[in-house]
Fold:
Amino acid sequence: MKKPSILLVEDEENLQEALKLNLELEDYDVTSAWNGIEALELIQKEHFDLLILDVMLPELDGISVVETIRLQNNDIPVLILSAKNSSADRVLGLKKGADDYLTKPFNLEELLLRVSKLLQKSRQLAERKPVEQVYKFGRNSIDFSSLQCSTRSGEVITLTKKEIMLLKLLIENKNEVVTREKILQAVWGYNVYPTTRTIDNFILNFRKYFEEDSRSPKYFHSVRGIGYKFTE
Structure:
């Protein structure tokens, strides 16, 4: 069985060596990078199961690295290591697309536990089946290639590209909450930043098209303060 592969991006030499050694003792395959530019180059060339990333890096900081890979729709789990321990820094890291955030100095056992959990997430991503071109649920169907859907009443509606992108994202992650930030990155990118109300309006439209009772939705749910979820 192939060892899980980790890209470790840390410019502090002693910490880089200590972490690399301890991760290799856990039977992980570890590649080292020393700055943000090098990290992005390696991610373009190779597949990694996990990215461990310091925030304070030369040339390109860790937050910018995360933002860049998420804009490329790369779902690699990311664990940020940071000497900055304010909640604002933590929130910024998670908003830009990190999966977890650990402040320095940290407990090695805790780091290894978080690494193990994120690698489990990486396995689930790898096993995720792509959504079929025509996706059916209840009496509804969505044709992603023709940008059309057929509602429970048999009405055929032409959807916008953004509606299709959002539907696909929610269905790919069915039964899981997709954060507002992830939706913004995947559907809108960073050049246009819609309000929460914009995404809410999309969800209200989906309920109108696909739900028996839009006030008591079965498929499309808003999770207050976090994001949105498609359940089946």
User: Anything to note?
Assistant: The longest strand covers residues 5-9. The CA atoms of residues 6 and 122 lie 11 Å apart. The chain has two domains: 5-127, 134-230. The helical segments are 13-25, 36-45, 62-71, 87-95, 108-127, 161-172, 180-188, 196-210.
